[in-house]
Amino acid sequence: MAYEVLWISAKEIDQLGITMLEVMNAVETGFAAIGRGEGEMPAKIGIHSREDCFIHAMPCYLGGDIDRAGVKCVSGYPPNPAKGHPYITGIMLLNDPDTGIPVAVMDAAWVTAWRTGAASGVYARHFGNPDTTSVTIVGTGVQGRVNLLAMMEAFPKLNKVRCFDIFESSIEKFITDMQPQLPEATFVTCTDLETAVRDADVLITCTPIVETPERSIPQSWVKEDCLVIAVDYDSAIHEDIFKDANFTCDNRNQYVWTQEQGTYFQNGYPLPADINADMGEICAGIKQGVREGKRGAVLMGIASHDIMTASLIYDRATTAGLGTKVEL
Ligand SMILES: NC(=O)c1ccc[n+]([C@@H]2O[C@H](COP(=O)([O-])OP(=O)(O)OC[C@H]3O[C@@H](n4cnc5c(N)ncnc54)[C@H](O)[C@@H]3O)[C@@H](O)[C@H]2O)c1
């Protein structure tokens, strides 16, 4: 017996017009399900065929009313852009939770980009000051862009964006792409990291994840009540920033498991006892976010985001008649 899988390309996903707000709501629903214990989500596992490169496998089942299952295979290869390839590539598979039979395969780069920005937006929803007007983006690549889109949702009064990247051309392109999305805002090109970070109300770091991190942003540069979001594991944020802070991770199990492997979150990063909450607990209403004081998050990216975002894409593509049916 032959089965059909719906193949959904990156171009087709773009045509669906899915908004950041929709992805944030989906990601928040997934967080809450995990927080209530209504799912199965082992920490992501990976292989590393080159230094600082990864191929991760991220399976997840979300139960309850959601009842969706699947797995993402995603690669991150920092040398790729110099070769003309994207840094992040991959495929996302959705399975029928009753039979396990694959129902859809789609581009995982879009899923990864948007759900990651959305997760920052959900954290900002629960921990940010809604009156925030300025944000600093360090690393103005794909994540810089989607994180800014999410901050626009979380902070409607946003009117200033400070940008830093090791390549000024990257900042210029970022501003060209993003200014039309936020026409009233002032975009500031910062030529040094310290200028970008000082006085930031919200700081988001989106630099490459590396095995030997520089953690070049120290506590002394950061305002006491700055909301700090590390999208790039422990690459950019010095451990002092999270010391005595209200520290949140996206998923306690995955953070602790990754720390135990001995590569990331070593040398002074929060230990299991230092985690105030994970985002599952926050979104399920088991714990409350705080909106002032020293606070920050490490958002590593979890598989529930992928399942929720891919399900949104699959449902929308099915309704729109987009995608190609491929026989297995
Ligand atoms: N947490 C998650 O869920 C998640 C998901 C996707 C990507 N990521 C991570 O986010 C990071 C960014 O991914 P991306 O897709 O935006 O990559 P990208 O290549 O599109 O952008 C990275 C940007 O960082 C800049 N950069 C490099 N080193 C820098 C430094 N020291 N200081 C400032 N800028 C620097 C680069 O010039 C580039 O513009 C990567 O570490 C990636 O692994 C995390």
UniProtKB/TrEMBL annotation:
SUPFAM superfamilies the UniProt entry points to: NAD(P)-binding Rossmann-fold domains
Signal peptide residue numbers: none
Family annotation (InterPro entries): NAD(P)-bd_dom_sf (IPR036291), ODC_Mu_crystall (IPR003462), ODC_N (IPR023401)
Name by which UniProt lists this protein: Alanine dehydrogenase
